[in-house]
Each structure stands twice: as structure tokens, then as C-alpha cells.
Amino acid sequence: MLCMFTIVENEDEKIKLEELYEAYRQEMHRQAYAILKDEDDAEDAVQDAFFRIWSNLDKLQNMKQGGIKWYVICAARYAAIDIYRDKKKRLQKEETYDENFPYEYSKEENTEDDSLYGKISSFPDRERDVLMLKYVYGFQYKEISKMLHISVEAVKKALTRARSRLKKLCREEGLYND
């Protein structure tokens, strides 16, 4: 991680990244480790996530603290998933792929939260993340695509699914009628 701080030339950016690192490193590592089940790979995922965060640092300035936490945790999760996919591809090429390769992570589901936000947090990760990035934080499709390392079409599909789930939720809650 130290190498990243040495390449950041802007002192304000360096300070902000160091603050984020100190505040969220452990939670980011925990999320990455839950997916990868390997300490070194989890550290790599945290570092990759900070490169992603650095490239979008200007957008984080307008977010509230909860949004920043959510964003950095998602960055770690998606970096870990990218590492997992790369590792899986390498293993398949070597024909030593183990079908039991771990791909689990613990969602911190708050089953007591009956609010709409609490229910949205139970959406599949990609759908929830795309929905939040688009409608809460106002990112464009292309920006979301870049942040999550998925195609613009995948962003649109995930958003369509998330809106359908949200519409269904609102109907169930009596908040929406056709």
C-alpha cells in the first residue's frame, strides 16, 4: 500500500487517501478476505480498490460519510471479485480448477431493518450497488461501468432488475399502485 501513496503527487489527495485507508482498511480487508479466503489476495484487492478510489476521489467529496463507507467497501468487494475471476481463469487454464473454490462472503444483513433502505440492502450486490450509484449518487452509466468493471449493458440490465425489485417492494408496502 505504501507504493500507492508514493505515486500520489497531490498532497490533498494523499491525505484524503490516507484518511480513507485508516478508516476503512480493516472492513475492506474483511470483505475481500471473505470472497478470496487468502490474506495476500485480500491485501491485493484492498490495494486495487484504493487505485479505483483514487481515480474517483473528486466524486467522493460530495458524498456523506455513510456513502463514502459504502463506496469504499464496494470498491474492495469488486476488486476481490475481479481477483477471484482472474484466479479462476488461471486455474481453469491449468486444468486444476477446484469446483469448491470459495466464493462466499458474509453480507451484513440487518433483518430488523424494515425501512425501504433496509430492504434495498437485501438486493443482490450488483443490483443494489448500481441502483445506489445511479439514483443516490448520480453517476452515469459509463461511470458506473468503469467503477464496477462491468459493461454498460450489464449496468443497464442490473438497473432494470433493481428497479423491478424496487417496484415490487413498493407495491408490497402500498407505496406504489399501477
Unreliable stretches, pLDDT < 50, 5 or more residues? 95-113
Calculate the mean pLDDT score and round it: 78
> What count of helical segments does DSSP give?
9
Distance between the termini: 51 Å
Q: Please report the total strand number as a whole number.
A: 0
Q: Give the biggest beta sheet.
A: none
Shape: globular
Question: Which secondary-structure class do the elements indicate?
Answer: mainly alpha
The helicity comes to: over 70%
Strand content: under 5%
User: For the CA atoms, what is the radius of gyration?
Assistant: 18 Å
What sequence of helices (H) and strands (E) makes up the elements?
HHHHHHHHH
Fold and architecture overview:
- This protein has 178 residues and is mainly alpha-helical.
- Helix content is 72%, strand content 0%.
- It contains nine helices and no strands.
- Helix 2 (11-36) runs antiparallel to helix 3.
- The longest helix has 29 residues, at 65-93.
- The protein is globular, with a radius of gyration of 18 Å.
- Residues 95-113 have low confidence and may be disordered.
